Amino acid sequence: KQKPPKKKLPPGPFGFPVIGQSLSLFRALRTNTGEQWLEQKVRKFGPVLKLSLFGHPTVFLAGQAANKLVFGNDTLTPRQTRSFTSIMGRQTMREMIGDDHRRLRAAFGQFLKPDVLKKYVSKIDEEVRYHIKMNWTGQQTVTVTPLMKCLTFDIMCSLIFGLDRGDTRQALATELVDMVAGMWSIPLNIPFTRFNKSMKASRRARRILSKVIQERRRNLDHGLCSPHADLITCLLSLNQEGCGNEALSEEEIIDNTIFAMVAGHDTTAVLITFMIRQLAKDPAIHAKVAREQEGIAKSKTPGETLTWDDLNKMKYTWRVALETLRMIPPVFGSFRKALKDVEFNGYLIPKGWHVFWASSMTQMNADIFHEPHKFDPTRFENQSSIPPYCFIAFGGGSRICPGNEFARIETLVAMHYIVTQFRWKLSGEDDGFTRYPLPSPSQGLTIKLEPKGDM
Length: 455
Ligand code: HEM
Description:
- Keywords: Heme, Iron, Metal-binding, Monooxygenase, Oxidoreductase, Signal.
- One of its GO terms (biological process) is sterol metabolic process.
- The chain is an alpha+beta fold.
- The protein contains 16 helices and 12 strands.
- It has helices spanning about 20-30, 35-45, 65-70, 80-90, 100-110, 115-135, 145-160, 165-180, 195-220, 230-235, 250-280, 285-300, 310-315, 315-325, 360-365, 405-420, and strands at about 50-55, 55-60, 75-80, 140-145, 335-340, 340-345, 345-350, 355-360, 420-425, 435, 440, 445-450.
- The strands form 4 sheets. The protein has a 5-stranded mixed sheet, sandwiched between helices. It has a 3-stranded antiparallel sheet with strand order 4-12-9. The protein has a two-stranded antiparallel ribbon with strand order 6-7.
- α11 packs parallel to α16.
- The radius of gyration is 23 Å and the shape is globular.
């Protein structure tokens, strides 16, 4: 009997033991050359190559077919660092596979379905106006990155945890910053390490949220709030008898609401920041966005909040957002783990190995997006012309970002009030941006503001 031929591993060196190519990739991300770093490897070894990242043998996959494999194959499951899982908790939907993952996605779906999302527009509108009044109005210059992080944090606190401005929101903000700081640290839980500080912050944040959950449960039981008031209440309401849903434990609710906050807050802040940067550099596109937004502002009475219908009229502004996400995706890429041997393009991805995908490999590919380095929002006029699995700023398949519509509302409402109230230009030279791992303008993006007068 002939033995079946042995499947071959992808080409490429593993590099130094343990470190592999991790430091080299980090350096490239920090200098915003991560894309070129990957392209160079693909030119040398082809679109399926092996390397070693974070101490794991890893296969890097590039191209549309590779994206389809990553997003459409349940044997490749998301992979987090050990510190991430310890700090964020083991019950996040990121850790779940199969039916458990579907159950959590369905629970989130109750909070993020379109007719519920519509109700959040006015709350987001209120947060944006308050933010602008407190931080932009009367200023001659502002630094956009930290402000956008504050704004998206406040919006999410209000809608994920149902926390209004005040001491509890502030306390939670402090703990979350400390938690996030340790997510990529060495998981050494001894006093004074970064990981140890983040673990302590995680315990304190959980205690705060446990109290919030008790209060929400009471309100829900006494009919004092709508089941869709915020994500926590929404997940608790699924536990009520007779609604036909499987109950979520308190731990699941805490882990997943914290995870939603972390997944959604910086990513959206990055998108708005880079749109503001783009408009400062491109007067023609700025003028078109301003025309669209001013048209909508004129149709409103003073002080009237934006509605879902208004957002649906902001078509050009959203195309600018999508083009920003194509060229500067907040999520550079991420990892999967092979639950069993997988074969792709004639190569073996052995069980237990990691798989790494990166958005830029299709989003900046000239065969898919003509003149990929040109900022051109018209590419998104006819979205069905973009081949599947090529625009993957929100991921794809069963793991596609469930918060993409939420992010759209936040972005459009924020852009509406900024564009209709101010003109701006960069305060100095545009000195590019770094990634750690999310992109961030090198100096935080300081802009000079000029008020447009009462709209
Ligand atoms: C511009 C803003 C955003 C971008 C670019 C973005 C991007 C992404 C990407 C690329 C993924 C998939 C990662 C992978 O497959 O490995 C993802 C997943 C996820 N995102 Fe977002 N996201 C954004 C906003 C949000 C918001 C606002 C929320 C919450 C309301 C959110 C919650 C999540 C969650 C919970 C997952 C995990 C889904 C799962 O594993 O099933 N994201 N996001």
